[in-house]
């Protein structure tokens, strides 16, 4: 069997990435163990070590974890006890109520946390500031960045409300935007495939518009004519590059033709009940999550996917459509983009899928 140079290179890079992830994970474990040893002999506590107390409210603590040996806090829900406890996304959980969980699997840590206690005392190692600062701008992945004004329409036939945001165009030809230039997590992302760029003065000078067909539209404006010209130039180049078949699109289209068991190292997989957009009825689908893309199959033995959703920039939250107890919503940053609704058979499975989706989307944004 002949293999092209691109296939060999792709296989080698995938293997190298997996090994680097394993090395990084091992470094985190060693760092945590060193932190524990330092705590035993040091007179003063290390600034990176925290003890956080979370009290259960409305049957929930309000945070999710991801990974295994060690587990990492992947999400904190708003208006929950976890939000006001001082816990942060990226915290490595070392101990739960005095039990060392550094060598525990994800399911073992969840079992310990839900063992009947109304209060969780978490000993965590805080590395998020270090890791996030490296990932924030994406290093060499960032092509261009700067402040732009973004229009958020309030109602039809009403003037838009303009908000200043920090925009970053990365090498994946995605346009990410943050609240400020010091923010870690983006508030949205736009894949520039099939978009058109036009100049537009929508109540603000130096404006331009990104639009795809008659659907998603993003109105932007710069502070100066020079800045607007630079942004139009780099965005036009990115759109042209996006309309060509790049490496990511090739991988995505290739995955669509594969059976679910052939997608290597998925972020999550299993059955989900999916709400149809046309008939508003629930259908059981086998789903595979990989690099913020969710592939849909009729069942686990299907030869290929019948559909796929690119979830870059999407957000995850619980909901209850049709009174479904274990449902969740996958929301776009722009209201005209499609919403997705799913439900599972148990609360544990819902938490598993929500944590995996948040982790996959967030990781893709940071990796660029």
Question: Can you describe what's shown?
Answer:
Helix content is 28%, strand content 32%. It has 368 residues and is an alpha+beta fold. It has a seven-stranded antiparallel sheet, covered by helices on one side. The longest helix is centred in the N-terminal third of the chain and has 37 residues, at 5-41. The protein is globular. The model is unreliable at 1-6, 41-48 and 128-140 (pLDDT under 50).
Note the main attributes of this structure.
368 residues; alpha+beta; seven-stranded antiparallel beta sheet; 20 strands; 28% helix
Secondary-structure topology with pairs:
Elements lengths: L4 H37 L7 E7 L7 E5 L3 E6 L15 E5 L2 E2 L5 H8 L5 E7 L2 H9 L5 E11 L8 E10 L3 E5 L9 E4 L4 E4 L7 E5 L5 E5 L3 H18 L4 H10 L11 E8 L6 E9 L2 E5 L9 E4 L4 E5 L7 E5 L8 E4 L3 H21 L1
Antiparallel strand pairs: 1-6, 2-3, 4-5, 4-6, 7-8, 7-13, 8-9, 9-10, 11-12, 12-13, 14-15, 14-20, 15-16, 16-17, 18-19, 19-20
